[in-house]
Amino acid sequence: MHDTSPMRTPPGQKLHKDINGPSVECKLYRGMIGSLLYLTASRHDIMFSTCICARYQANPKESHLSAVKRILRYLNKTPTLGLWYPMHSNIDLVAYTDSDYGRCQIDRKSTSGSCQFLGGKLVSLSSKKQNCVSTSTTGAEYVVVASCCSKALWMQTQLRDYGYSVDKIPILCDSKSAIAISANPVQQ
To answer: What is the pLDDT of residues 67-112, one digit of tens each?
Structure first.
């Protein structure tokens, strides 16, 4: 890959099983995925793409390998990106959530994502396929908000054990209908 051109944007292509595609060596593919998964600890911009590629480790095809190589080309273009943790900051806990509705081409499940910031520092990040198939965007967003809420409450308990009091934890979501359901205890 020395002669390849670097990519400016993270990979966002959709992958599928590619049953009829030519197979590639599993050991090489798994090694590349393992290295990328290790790197996602500080490079969260590649987490989604890497996790999509990791789904096909059992029987990788050339299309999956080219997606992994695209991630590597993106990393080659952006070596200075990563997480920065400021030395002094407050102890405010803020959470963000988002979900895509039924994007997986195989089983139509949504992918949820949430992240929690403590004093402006990223302390937790989650991106995973939902266990259930949502019938609407509202349902998919509500599932991720509920999951994020449980993580935020766990973090609040942990902070209380260390002597910090966090009374309100804003959970920011971009779905007005999911916010309305969350705010109305009658609809829950």
So the answer is: 999 999 999 888 888 776 666 777 889 999 887 765 666 666 777 7
Distance CA 133, CA 156 (A): 30
Residue with tokens 């590619």: 18
Residue by residue, DSSP assigns 29-72 as HHHHHHHHHHHTTT-GGGHHHHHHHHTT-SS-BHHHHHHHHHHH
Q: Which fold has domain 93-183?
A: Nucleotidyltransferase; domain 5 (3.30.420)
Tell which wins on pLDDT, 187 or 74. 74
Sign of CA dihedral 65, 66, 70, 72: positive
Domain segments of the chain as ranges? 1-83, 93-183
